[in-house]
Each structure stands twice: as C-alpha cells, then as structure tokens.
Write a structure and sequence with these properties.
The protein is an alpha/beta fold and about 260 residues long. Helices cover about 20% and strands about 20% of the residues. The chain has helices at about 85-100, 110-120, 180-185, 195-205, 210-215, 240-250, and strands spanning about 55-60, 65-70, 80-85, 100-105, 125-130, 145-150, 165-175, 190, 225-230, 235. Helix 3 packs parallel to helix 4. The longest helix is centred in the middle third of the chain and has 13 residues, at about 85-100.
C-alpha cells in the first residue's frame, strides 16, 4: 500500500516574532543534571540512620565518651549563660571560630582574651575584642554567623545589642550575682560548672534540677559542665586539643 505525503504546514503569520520561553518551576530554578534514581527495597529501610541534632560545635564528650555537639547558630537569636570559668568560654569561642563564625568579645579583661584572639583564625581577624558598652551591630547572617561573648562579671548590664538571627550570645558569669535568677531565666541554655552549695540551690530552683544534680554541682571537676534546660540536661567533659592547650593551657575553673 502506498502512503501519500503532505508538505509540512507553513509558519503561522507572526510566529517568527514569538519567543518560546522555557517553563521554570517557581522555587526550583533551572533543571540540574539528570541522574539515575536511587531505589531502596523496603526490607533495607531499617539499615538507614538519619543523625539529628549533630550539627554544630563539639564542646566535649558526654558520659559515654561520645562527642557532645552544641547547635550554636540558629535562624533565630540564641542566648546561652555559662556559670563557670573563662577557659571553657574560650574553648567554645575558639571552636566557633574554627567552623567559620565571627566572635565578638565584650569584656573588661581584654588582656586575658588577647592571646586567644591572636591565635584564632590563623592570623585572620575572626575574633575581635570590644570595651564594655562599645559593641555595635555585628551584621550576622546565615553565611556569616556571629558569637557574642559577654564577659562582664557576675552582674552584667543589659546589652544594647539587638537580637538577630544567626547571632548567639554567650554570657559568662564567674559566680551567681544578685540578678542571677533573671539572667538564668532569660537564657535558652545554661551551662554550670563547679559552684557553691548555696548557688547550686538557686540553679536547681530555676532549672528544676533533681536533687542529685544539685548535690553534684559543688563537686564538679575543672573540665566538667552541666548543660541544662528545663527539659533536658547533660554533663559534658571538655577535652582540649594540642593546639588549644598551647594557647589556653589546661582546664581551670577560676582565672
């Protein structure tokens, strides 16, 4: 059987002026390279493990010897209070700088923060030291998170720095002052090192700690910190690396 062929239809008048625009799905942008789909049998699903909450800064090891990770930077402002020594605060600051964050320290003890600031970042100005009340806006963003350390004694004044996304504030208290309850209540997370029994009672009431934790706080070693909220708590032992020990020395509760 013979088939009759027909010429292709000519262009519609005005079609040459029309431009065909590729359709781009909103929110997805241009199409990427094509790859084969990954297929997993239902029987193999139990072998998958999805770690949750392990992104952040390693601040030590837990009682099982596993890394204790603190999600330090978040899309909302985050406030931490550490009732303890400068050594632990500087360990956290060094490790925040090591993951690419900027660190701004507001302190009246600049001479004690200077060596750490000079050693951090391999010569890059990632740690800056500011006089009390002289800390300005830091311009934190998801690409440039900021850790603000406030080392202002046991009675820190209210900060004039506005809260911002991707900006975390760590307030260091050497011991509990008269306004300790207000400072602790305002914190999202509290770290407590060795304190006096009377101070442990205050912390226990504010954080609703069980009696065994209240009793243990006056006996903690220099490298131990209890990190707690009203819902969760965990003991963490800070372990300094060789480079950190060269800059900061060994762990100590008082400076």
């Amino acid at each position: 059987m013979a088939y009759q062929t027909y010429p292709a239809p000519g262009p519609t008048p005005g079609a040459e002026q029309r431009r065909v625009r590729p359709r781009i799905l909103p929110g997805f942008g241009l199409r990427g390279p094509r790859r084969e789909k990954h297929v997993l049998e239902a029987a193999d699903l139990s072998a998958l493990a999805f770690p949750v909450g392990d992104d952040g800064v390693v601040i030590g090891v837990d009682p099982q010897g596993l890394p204790a990770v603190l999600g330090l930077f978040r899309p909302t402002a985050y406030d931490l209070v550490l009732v303890g020594g400068m050594w632990t605060a500087q360990i956290i600051a060094l490790r925040a700088a090591a993951i690419g964050a900027r660190v701004a320290v507001e302190t009246a003890r600049a001479q004690l923060w200077g060596p750490m600031a000079q050693a951090a970042g391999g010569g890059q100005p990632c740690v800056t030291i500011h006089q009390v009340g002289r800390l300005g806006p830091q311009g934190a963003s998801v690409a440039s998170p900021v850790l603000v350390v406030r080392d202002l004694g046991a009675r820190p004044p209210r900060t004039r720095l506005s809260a911002a996304p991707w900006q975390t504030t760590l307030t260091l208290l050497p011991y509990l002052g008269p306004n300790a309850s207000r400072v602790l209540n305002a914190a999202d997370l509290v770290g407590v090192q060795r304190i006096m029994p009377q101070e442990a009672e205050v912390v226990g009431r504010v954080l609703s700690l069980p009696p065994e934790d209240v009793a243990s706080l006056p006996t903690l070693g220099d490298d131990l910190t209890l990190w707690a909220t009203r819902m969760r708590r965990q003991y963490v032992r800070a372990v300094a690396g060789q480079a950190e020990q060269q800059v900061l020395g060994g762990p100590r509760r008082m400076d």
